[in-house]
Write a structure and sequence with these properties.
InterPro entries: ArsR-like_HTH (IPR011991), Tscrpt_reg_PadR_N (IPR005149), WH-like_DNA-bd_sf (IPR036388), WH_DNA-bd_sf (IPR036390). By secondary structure, the protein is mainly α. It has helices at 9-20, 25-35, 44-56, 75-83, 85-134, 137-171, 178-200, and strands spanning 23-24, 60-65, 68-73. It contains 7 helices and 3 strands, in the order αβααββαααα.
Amino acid sequence: MPPVFSHGDLRLYILSLLDEAPRHGYDLMQALSERTGGTYSPSAGTIYPRLSKLEEEGLVTKSVDGRKTVYEITDAGRAEVAERSGDLEGIQAGLADSVRLIADEVRGSVRDAMRSLRADLAAASREEREQARATPADDARSRSREQLSRADAAITEFRGRVRSELRAHVARGGELSASGVDGIEEALRRASDAVAHALRG
């Protein structure tokens, strides 16, 4: 994966975050991780030297608040952010692309899991029909109940896997857009229709 920030972009982006509000170093690291959808989690060794450099350039000041050092942008820093607004828009567009790529990967994983679930249910339905033809009615019902338990277990496992993946994505700071959820809902509806079709077949 290419670097999230090109040369000099991180410096400008830190300034833009401080232009929003004063922040301490850890807060900046969290904000960077959230804004990049978890694709970039900077270390203290990356952030604090850049903050020191910005302070030397007169673009930020720092003050101590309890045990935290809070950084605040200066008028000179705001002037640079305003002057380079075009560069900043380009950086933000690149970050949005990164978040969209992550959302696409999540949707792809959901679609793959759906296909696997449909195949398993279709196979279970075929097996059920074959057993029903070869056994008495009472025995067929017993086997159907066994297969129902198997299908329930498969659906529960699928639901847990998808929920875990979505929650992990959001916990990493990834964006989950309304259109992304719409796509997931549509995929689930198609999976439900496929299950009904497999059972009727």
